[in-house]
Amino acid sequence: MIEYTTAKTDADLKEILTLQQKNLTKSLSGNEATREGFVTVEHDLRVLRVMNAPYPHILAKAEGKVVGYALTMLKETQIEVPILKPLFDSFNEVTFEGVHLAKANYLVMGQICIDKAFRQMGIFKNLYRNYAAQFAPHFDYVITEVSARNNRSLNAHLAAGFEIIHTHEEEGQKWIMIWLKLK
Prior knowledge:
By secondary structure, the protein is an alpha+beta fold. It contains six helices and nine strands, in the order βαααββαβββαβαββ.
C-alpha cells in the first residue's frame, strides 16, 4: 500500500536524495535513461531543506520508505540551485494564453521521481493529485521543464494534465516548458 504524505524530517529528505542519485542521468546507461526516464538536477540536503519550506515536498511511501517524490520550489529559492537560473529566466520571458509567467502565481515542480520498482502503479498521477490538493489554495499553476530527450517524463506529465507552453534550447539541449492549471 502506498501512503502519500509530505517531507517532515531530514530522514525523508535523505531518502529523496538516495532515490535521486539512482535516477540521475550520470547514474544510468544511455539506453536505460531513454527507456526509464531520468532526473537532471542533483540537490543536497541543505538545498532540499530550504526548498521544503514553507511548502513541503510531496512523498509516496511504501512500508515507511520513500518510493516517489515531487519537489516544491518557490521562485524565491532559485538562488539555491544556480543550475536552474536559465529555467527561471526562461519562465520570465514566456506568455501563454495571455498569462505572463513573470507575473503569474506559480509553484515550480522542482523534480519528480518514482523508484523503478514502483513505476506503472499510478504513483506519478497520485503525487500530482496530492500536489494539486495541497497547493491549489495558494497557487494558480505548477510549472516545470522536461528535457526533450526524456520522453517517458514528458508523456507522464501530459497524461497527468500538463500542457506544453513553450520550448527552447539551452546549451544545445531542447527543453519543453509545461504547466498544470490548479484553478
